[in-house]
Amino acid sequence: MAKRRRKKEELDPLQALVLLLMLGAGFGAYKLTNSFILAGAAFGAVMMLYAIVAISIARKRNERLKRSGIAEIDKMEGRQFEKYLGHLLEAHGYKVTVTQAAGDFGADLVIAKGEQRVVIQAKRYSKNVGIKAVQEAQASIAHYSASEAWVISNSGYTEAAIILAKSNAVRLIDRAELIEMILKINADRSISTPHSVPEQNNTEKMSTKQIRTEVACAKCGQPLVRRKSARGEFLGCSSFPKCRHTEAV
């Protein structure tokens, strides 16, 4: 426990550097001017500059997270998360099979591209994923005749899970890498955010490709997008699933 407390109390390297710069600026100004007022002004100027940079970085980070739709993913049910990953990986060029909800033999998704065949454990968690997911993913390789196993989560992984994954050659995709995967696809609008992922059933599958139109939704005012289903093309609200308004093409 003591080690954890000490580690938590350690300064971030950037914060330590800024603190040194502030102290250096204040001390240097005092040495040059012999004035505590000017020394304080120099100290405050460095602190203000740091605050401006920190706010700018935080704003860009928040905008990036918003574009990824990770906040919506955090609210998904487990099965919905699996289906969303299916759409995301299809957009990355994989052929995707979503396994049955019960009795999946340790794999939620099976994807393939060329000679590569991968089994995937999907974990929509609010805490770090443990070793069980790694064990299940690795154990499912033989059953699905796969070449490798991945675990994909909107969260992170425990230290034990990371160690076990390394020794078993299981790839762990955490929150940061998942966001990168989403943003890479969003750049060409192949899929937008979790709003673009429909609730599927056995009779209808929705294409992940959407074409934005200039038509506004009659209910919420958001742009309508052209979508494809087994029944043909239709216009659906871009804020789905918050708004489920549809119109005929």
Quick structural summary:
This protein is α+β, with helices and mostly antiparallel strands. Helix content is 46%, strand content 20%. Helix 2 (13-33) runs antiparallel to helix 3 (36-68) and helix 6 runs parallel beside helix 7.
What helical percentage do the residues reach? 40-55%
Count of individual beta strands: 9
Mean pLDDT, all residues = 78
Uncertain segments are 1-9, 189-209
Secondary-structure element order, as H and E?
HHHHHEEEHEHEHEEEE
Number of helices: 8
Radius of gyration: 24 Å
Tell me the distance between the termini: 62 Å
Q: How are the strands of the biggest sheet laid out side by side?
A: 1-2-3-4-5
Decide which structural class fits the backbone: alpha+beta
Major sheet attributes: 5 strands, mixed
Q: Name the overall outline.
A: flat
Beta-strand share of residues: 15-25%
Task: Give the topology, please.
Elements: H1 2-9, H2 13-33, H3 36-68, H4 70-73, H5 78-91, E1 95-98, E2 109-113, E3 116-123, H6 131-143, E4 148-153, H7 159-167, E5 170-173, H8 175-186, E6 211-216, E7 223-229, E8 232-237, E9 246-248
Parallel strand pairs: 3-4, 4-5
Antiparallel strand pairs: 1-2, 2-3, 6-7, 7-8, 8-9
Helix pairs in contact: 2-3, 3-8, 6-7
